[in-house]
């Protein structure tokens, strides 16, 4: 793994909400720390209500993690474009995040430990 990336099991149970709806809850979430960036919580895809997510054409590349795919969150009042990302085929050094989703920190999305 890149020396500046650390992946550990996130302690406790985590939830993600958007537009008043609970998108998921997990006690199997992962915490990814990368350099000086704030930690990111990754949720197992199986713990997220995928019906609220719509795959987008957006992609990005990280030299340490690989290619990311994006999803928009569909709420009752609006669509939060490209608010979720996933590494479908991450680099071997971060293979733990395969089949996990992460959510951007924004006013309309709350990722919280419960």
TrEMBL record:
Residues covered by the DUF427 domain: 15-105
Superkingdom classification of source: Bacteria
Pfam families: NTP_transf_9
Listed name of the protein: Uncharacterized protein (DUF427 family)
Organism: Sulfitobacter noctilucicola
């Amino acid at each position: 793994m890149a020396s500046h990336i650390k992946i550990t099991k996130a302690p406790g149970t985590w939830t993600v909400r958007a537009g008043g709806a609970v998108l998921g809850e997990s006690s199997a979430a992962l915490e990814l720390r990368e350099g000086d960036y704030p930690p990111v919580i990754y949720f197992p895809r199986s713990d997220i209500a995928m019906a609220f997510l719509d795959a987008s054409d957006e992609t990005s590349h990280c030299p340490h993690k690989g290619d990311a795919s994006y999803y928009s969150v569909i709420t009752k009042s609006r669509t939060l474009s490209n608010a979720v990302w996933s590494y479908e085929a991450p680099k071997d050094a971060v293979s733990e995040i395969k089949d996990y989703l992460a959510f951007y920190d924004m006013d309309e999305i709350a990722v919280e430990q419960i």
